[in-house]
Amino acid sequence: MPTATLDGVDVAVNEEGFFENPEEWTEAMAAEIAKAEGIDKLTDRHWQVILFMRNEFKTKGAGPSVRALGKSSGVSVKELYELFPKGPAKTAAKIAGIPKPRGCV
Question: d(Cα 24, Cα 98) in Å, to the nearest integer?
């Protein structure tokens, strides 16, 4: 099983870099993952989406799709693509330390 060193801690990840154990995630790790995904600074709007993703995973066992994210997170789909240009649901899930949402390529 691959590992990644984030914020000085080795964490288990899958072949795409998604956490195997979301409970190992920290906010400091999120900033490092974001930089690796081409996002230099996480804004309050990024955090709104990231924390929403974590809460959805915690309560429902899966991250939301882009459509559900746009409807429920308080951030429009257009803004989601501005915040996470490489794909909002997939990138936000990776930064949030949760598994890749179903339907993401």
Answer: 10
**Residue 91 token pair:** 């990138």
Cβ partners under 8 Å of residue 22, min gap 6: 54, 57, 97, 98, 99
Q: What is the mean pLDDT of residues 12-24?
A: 94
Superfamily of domain 3-96: DsrC protein, C-terminal domain (1.10.10.370)
Please tell me the distance from the alpha carbon of residue 3 to that of residue 13, in angstroms, as a whole number.
5
d(CA 23, CA 6): 14
**Structure confidence by residue, pLDDT tens digits, 57-91:** 999 998 888 888 999 999 999 999 999 999 999 99
Task: Work out the burial of residue 4: count CB atoms within 10 Å of its CB; fewer than 13 is exposed, 13-18 middle, 19 or more buried.
Answer: middle
Active site residues: 104
Question: Where are the domains positioned within the chain?
Answer: 3-96
pTM of the complete model: 0.93
